[in-house]
Amino acid sequence: MLEPSRRIPYRTWPGALAVLLAIAGYVGGLKMWDSRTPGSRPLPAGETAAVGHARFVPAEGWEMDVSRSRAGRSLMLFKGGHKFLVTTGPWAGGPDGPMTRQQRLMERGQGLQIDGDVSGFVTPWGLQGKTFAYYGSKLAGRFWQVVDLQRRSLVQIDVYGASDGLNEAMADARSMLESMDLEAPQ
Which of 2, 15, 62, 79 is the most buried (most CB within 10 A)? Predict the structure, then answer.
Protein backbone atom coordinates (compact mmCIF):
# COMPACT_ATOMS: atom_id res chain seq x y z
CA MET A 1 0.00 0.00 0.00
CA LEU A 2 1.25 3.44 -0.92
CA GLU A 3 1.76 5.94 1.80
CA PRO A 4 0.60 9.52 1.14
CA SER A 5 3.40 11.97 0.66
CA ARG A 6 4.16 14.19 3.57
CA ARG A 7 4.25 17.88 3.03
CA ILE A 8 6.16 20.17 5.21
CA PRO A 9 3.59 22.44 6.91
CA TYR A 10 3.98 26.12 6.21
CA ARG A 11 2.36 29.07 7.85
CA THR A 12 -0.17 31.20 5.93
CA TRP A 13 -1.01 33.70 8.63
CA PRO A 14 1.90 36.13 7.95
CA GLY A 15 0.82 36.54 4.32
CA ALA A 16 -2.84 36.88 5.24
CA LEU A 17 -1.94 39.44 7.91
CA ALA A 18 0.11 41.45 5.39
CA VAL A 19 -2.82 41.51 2.93
CA LEU A 20 -5.23 42.53 5.70
CA LEU A 21 -2.92 45.34 6.85
CA ALA A 22 -2.52 46.57 3.26
CA ILE A 23 -6.30 46.71 2.78
CA ALA A 24 -6.81 48.45 6.14
CA GLY A 25 -4.09 50.99 5.30
CA TYR A 26 -5.58 51.67 1.87
CA VAL A 27 -9.15 52.11 3.15
CA GLY A 28 -8.00 54.13 6.16
CA GLY A 29 -5.89 56.36 3.94
CA LEU A 30 -8.82 56.99 1.59
CA LYS A 31 -11.10 57.86 4.52
CA MET A 32 -8.51 60.23 5.97
CA TRP A 33 -7.96 61.87 2.57
CA ASP A 34 -11.72 62.25 2.09
CA SER A 35 -12.21 63.81 5.53
CA ARG A 36 -9.38 66.31 4.99
CA THR A 37 -10.40 67.33 1.46
CA PRO A 38 -13.00 70.09 1.59
CA GLY A 39 -16.26 69.51 -0.28
CA SER A 40 -16.81 73.20 -0.81
CA ARG A 41 -14.62 76.16 -1.53
CA PRO A 42 -15.54 79.77 -0.78
CA LEU A 43 -15.19 82.07 -3.76
CA PRO A 44 -13.48 85.45 -3.36
CA ALA A 45 -15.92 88.35 -3.63
CA GLY A 46 -15.82 90.20 -6.93
CA GLU A 47 -13.53 87.70 -8.67
CA THR A 48 -14.61 86.20 -11.99
CA ALA A 49 -15.42 82.48 -12.21
CA ALA A 50 -15.16 80.70 -15.55
CA VAL A 51 -16.59 77.47 -16.88
CA GLY A 52 -15.84 76.65 -20.50
CA HIS A 53 -16.11 79.91 -22.42
CA ALA A 54 -18.68 81.40 -20.00
CA ARG A 55 -17.54 83.66 -17.19
CA PHE A 56 -19.41 85.54 -14.49
CA VAL A 57 -18.99 87.18 -11.10
CA PRO A 58 -20.43 85.02 -8.28
CA ALA A 59 -22.71 86.76 -5.79
CA GLU A 60 -21.48 87.18 -2.24
CA GLY A 61 -21.91 84.20 0.07
CA TRP A 62 -22.07 81.50 -2.62
CA GLU A 63 -19.56 78.64 -2.40
CA MET A 64 -18.31 76.22 -5.03
CA ASP A 65 -19.36 72.58 -4.65
CA VAL A 66 -16.08 70.90 -5.57
CA SER A 67 -17.49 67.38 -5.90
CA ARG A 68 -20.22 68.38 -8.38
CA SER A 69 -18.14 70.73 -10.53
CA ARG A 70 -16.23 69.47 -13.57
CA ALA A 71 -13.32 71.50 -14.93
CA GLY A 72 -14.28 73.25 -18.15
CA ARG A 73 -17.77 71.68 -18.26
CA SER A 74 -19.81 72.61 -15.19
CA LEU A 75 -19.64 74.74 -12.07
CA MET A 76 -21.98 74.20 -9.11
CA LEU A 77 -22.38 76.95 -6.53
CA PHE A 78 -24.51 76.70 -3.42
CA LYS A 79 -25.77 78.96 -0.67
CA GLY A 80 -27.82 77.31 2.05
CA GLY A 81 -30.27 74.95 0.37
CA HIS A 82 -30.08 76.64 -3.04
CA LYS A 83 -27.92 75.64 -5.98
CA PHE A 84 -26.65 77.55 -9.04
CA LEU A 85 -25.37 75.30 -11.83
CA VAL A 86 -23.66 76.52 -15.01
CA THR A 87 -23.07 73.85 -17.66
CA THR A 88 -21.36 74.29 -21.02
CA GLY A 89 -21.18 71.87 -23.89
CA PRO A 90 -21.22 71.48 -27.65
CA TRP A 91 -24.37 72.44 -29.51
CA ALA A 92 -25.79 70.53 -32.43
CA GLY A 93 -29.19 70.91 -34.00
CA GLY A 94 -31.79 73.59 -33.58
CA PRO A 95 -31.62 76.15 -30.78
CA ASP A 96 -34.81 74.76 -29.21
CA GLY A 97 -33.62 71.14 -29.05
CA PRO A 98 -31.71 71.27 -25.74
CA MET A 99 -34.47 73.38 -24.16
CA THR A 100 -37.15 70.86 -25.15
CA ARG A 101 -35.03 67.97 -23.86
CA GLN A 102 -34.48 69.77 -20.56
CA GLN A 103 -38.19 70.43 -20.12
CA ARG A 104 -39.01 66.80 -20.91
CA LEU A 105 -36.38 65.60 -18.41
CA MET A 106 -37.77 67.84 -15.69
CA GLU A 107 -41.40 66.90 -16.33
CA ARG A 108 -41.05 63.17 -16.93
CA GLY A 109 -37.80 62.27 -15.22
CA GLN A 110 -37.95 64.46 -12.13
CA GLY A 111 -41.72 64.93 -11.78
CA LEU A 112 -41.56 68.74 -11.89
CA GLN A 113 -44.13 71.11 -13.40
CA ILE A 114 -43.19 73.82 -15.91
CA ASP A 115 -44.57 77.18 -14.81
CA GLY A 116 -45.89 79.09 -17.83
CA ASP A 117 -44.28 79.21 -21.26
CA VAL A 118 -40.69 79.51 -22.40
CA SER A 119 -39.75 83.17 -22.80
CA GLY A 120 -36.75 85.07 -24.10
CA PHE A 121 -34.31 87.11 -22.04
CA VAL A 122 -31.52 89.61 -22.72
CA THR A 123 -28.84 90.65 -20.22
CA PRO A 124 -27.13 94.07 -20.06
CA TRP A 125 -24.08 92.46 -21.75
CA GLY A 126 -26.28 91.48 -24.69
CA LEU A 127 -26.41 87.81 -23.80
CA GLN A 128 -29.73 86.43 -24.97
CA GLY A 129 -31.50 83.13 -24.75
CA LYS A 130 -34.57 81.39 -23.42
CA THR A 131 -35.81 80.73 -19.92
CA PHE A 132 -38.58 79.01 -17.99
CA ALA A 133 -39.54 78.48 -14.36
CA TYR A 134 -40.42 75.16 -12.77
CA TYR A 135 -41.64 73.84 -9.45
CA GLY A 136 -42.27 70.62 -7.59
CA SER A 137 -43.46 69.53 -4.18
CA LYS A 138 -40.09 70.20 -2.53
CA LEU A 139 -38.24 72.61 -4.80
CA ALA A 140 -38.63 75.35 -7.36
CA GLY A 141 -36.25 77.00 -9.78
CA ARG A 142 -35.52 78.73 -13.04
CA PHE A 143 -33.60 77.48 -16.07
CA TRP A 144 -31.81 79.69 -18.61
CA GLN A 145 -30.25 78.56 -21.88
CA VAL A 146 -27.94 80.42 -24.24
CA VAL A 147 -26.93 79.03 -27.64
CA ASP A 148 -23.83 80.59 -29.20
CA LEU A 149 -24.25 79.89 -32.92
CA GLN A 150 -20.78 81.13 -33.90
CA ARG A 151 -18.98 78.84 -31.46
CA ARG A 152 -21.56 76.08 -31.80
CA SER A 153 -21.80 75.90 -28.04
CA LEU A 154 -24.48 75.74 -25.40
CA VAL A 155 -24.58 77.32 -21.94
CA GLN A 156 -27.26 76.22 -19.49
CA ILE A 157 -27.85 77.94 -16.15
CA ASP A 158 -30.08 76.32 -13.54
CA VAL A 159 -30.92 77.76 -10.12
CA TYR A 160 -33.09 75.74 -7.77
CA GLY A 161 -33.79 74.98 -4.16
CA ALA A 162 -36.41 74.97 -1.45
CA SER A 163 -39.18 77.55 -1.68
CA ASP A 164 -37.98 79.21 1.54
CA GLY A 165 -35.48 81.91 0.61
CA LEU A 166 -35.89 81.30 -3.11
CA ASN A 167 -36.54 84.98 -3.87
CA GLU A 168 -33.13 85.96 -2.46
CA ALA A 169 -31.44 83.10 -4.33
CA MET A 170 -33.19 84.18 -7.56
CA ALA A 171 -32.00 87.76 -7.08
CA ASP A 172 -28.42 86.50 -6.64
CA ALA A 173 -28.83 84.22 -9.68
CA ARG A 174 -30.06 87.11 -11.82
CA SER A 175 -27.10 89.25 -10.76
CA MET A 176 -24.71 86.40 -11.68
CA LEU A 177 -26.50 85.90 -15.00
CA GLU A 178 -26.36 89.63 -15.76
CA SER A 179 -22.59 89.61 -15.13
CA MET A 180 -22.10 86.65 -17.50
CA ASP A 181 -20.42 86.84 -20.88
CA LEU A 182 -19.19 84.21 -23.31
CA GLU A 183 -15.77 85.63 -24.08
CA ALA A 184 -13.63 83.63 -21.66
CA PRO A 185 -10.49 82.18 -23.27
CA GLN A 186 -10.50 78.41 -23.59
Answer: 62
